[in-house]
Amino acid sequence: MKESFFATRMKKLRNQKEITQSELAGILHVSRSCISNYEKGERQPDMEILRRLARYFHVSTDYLLGRPEDVPQEIGDALDLSVLGVEEKLQVLRFYRYLRGQML
Q: How far is CA 96 from the centre of its chain?
C-alpha cells in the first residue's frame, strides 16, 4: 500500500522523538502492530487516537493528515481543504505557490 501523508509524518515525528513503536504504543494504549500498520499506511487511526497523537507530538491533526503547511490558515479555512484528497491538496499548494510567486 502507498504510504500516506499520515504514515510518513507519524513515522518522522516518532523518529524525531527517538522512541520505538513499542514505546509509542504504550503511550497511546494500542498494540505495537497497530503503530506499525499506521506507519506502513495499512490502517488509519480513529479520531481519538489521532487527537492523542497530535497532543503527544505537539502538532495539529491537520498536519498529521497532510494539510499543506504553507497555505495560510485563513485560505485553507476558506477553501475547506478537508474535503480534498492528498493529490488535490498538493495541486492547491502548487497553485498557491505559483500565484504567490507572480505577486512578488
A: 20
Residue boundaries of the structural domains of the chain: 5-65, 73-103
Q: Which CATH code fits 5-65? A: 1.10.260.40
Q: Residue ranges of the alpha helices (H) in the chain?
A: 5-17, 21-28, 32-39, 47-57, 61-65, 73-79, 86-103
**Residue 83 CB: number of other CB atoms within 10 A?**
7
CA angle 37, 42, 44 (to 5 degrees): 85
Residue where the block lists cell 497523537: 53
Neighbours of 45 (CB within 10 A): 20
pLDDT band at 34 (very low <50, low <70, confident <90, very high): very high
Nearest to 25 by CA among 34, 17, 16, 12: 34
Q: Give the burial class of 67: count Cβ atoms within 10 A of its Cβ; 0-12 exposed, 13-18 middle, 19 or more buried.
A: buried
Query: Is the pTM value of this prediction over 0.70?
Result: no
Confidence grade of residue 78 (pLDDT, cut at 50, 70, 90) = low
